């Protein structure tokens, strides 16, 4: 690796010990000076602990400021606990705030205060670090924040005010904050009113449903501004330029968890501050060529559709509604008949059974983006092992009875399922994993569901199949001869059909509904297309965990 020229190097005091502190374009480094005279006042020296030094990437420095040692106040007027008593020899000080990694992908903001002998030196350090930070491109300066006060445990406002706003202030990020007053408030504001030119990004405080609102607003606005008709399923959509940050305050928080590795508001805020970027695929959902919605995480028919429909009536329970309705739906054990057709993603790298998941800097996503898979013709290869699959004009067709039909355009990892519905799905490869769970015994379905909560392979079961696709369609059996069948309008006819097919009437209804990122879709027959990297998040994908050393750091006080 090329050695970076030093911009500054000085001996400064930290916790009453002298440190060699240096700055180059990539790292800020400090290491204790190992002389017997180094102790200045009152500190206890551990002769057997060798300090290996501490390095922080400049790109992960959040802020720097002078500290008024007489008042204990930072330049920006905020109070700081005195890191140490001022000494006569080192009367000036500055504080650097930076990202420190903790376990389970958690990030924390740490402060380290260096004391200088001369004011001019202190100024030089502050100025030079500031210049380095100003030179970093991609950090947001002005953000538009939407808070859903009713998501999750209804803590959105408190989480933002107590945990996030102070960090944004420290990093000199200004914000316009809107607390939503009703569902779709944020979507409509973004779509028609917000003056987006003045912002470097949009932040949403809430769950997956709230994030979905923001995406709908931003994607629609981008298409309108570029003269694109988002209603047509064949239209090539224009990618959004503004990045979106998610402060998790919802019930599932799957988008946040799957793009950062944890649902922690402080970690998310720090990824926003350092200006991370993670592109993401978006699925468009149409019914009879009419646009219904976009989906970012889960599109689920059968089990997850039924869980959602039931849980919506129990919103008062908060996030526990999903456990309650999940159990109830599992006991009901309904299956649904229909035809699934899909265009397999044959020319892209990766398969849904891969052992290596999508991680920060994913090469599969990078490679597949270059292929721009949505424009290459799909090849169809009928599965020789499957008796009920066939090829029709580049589409594979599978008919059957399904307990669940799930499409995941990313892993859908969340606290309930840390590896996700499709652990090897990629955030930004232009494909989705289509998971078909055929009718099986309740016991086998339970085994399948339980595998979502562990590292066991949920696809290694005879009644489960998974395909990586660019497009898919679903037609419920009772719709197959109707070009347009609205569930509500045709309810009566359906009911008699159900009773004819299931004489005991204690059996499965003809239709489930689709769970589209936590929203119930009004149609069962849908067509879905994956749009490669349509949006970008303030995230970087899940990082490989750092190696933790048992060495005390200035932050680990
Ligand atoms: C018997 C043990 C069963 C354990 C099954 C666990 C499997 C959980 C996989 C969950 C995947 C979730 C994918 C994300 C979906 C969200 O879009 C959606 C809305 O989220 P929010 O707006 O935050 O409310 N959440 C759900 O649909 C929850 C499904 C939970 C089903 C148990
Ligand atoms: N002020 C509001 N009042 C009621 N509903 C809202 C409000 N703001 C947003 N919503 C809606 O609340 C739904 C759920 O929000 P979300 O933040 O995802 O919480 P949860 O994860 O608990 O479902 C979203 O579909 C969103 O459209
Ligand atoms: Ca994908």
From TrEMBL:
Residues 138-289 form the DAGKc domain. SUPFAM superfamilies: NAD kinase/diacylglycerol kinase-like. It comes from the Eukaryota. Pfam families: CERK_C (PF19280), DAGK_cat (PF00781), PH_CERK (PF25382). This is DAGKc domain-containing protein. Gene3D superfamilies: 2.60.200.40, Probable inorganic polyphosphate/atp-NAD kinase, domain 1.
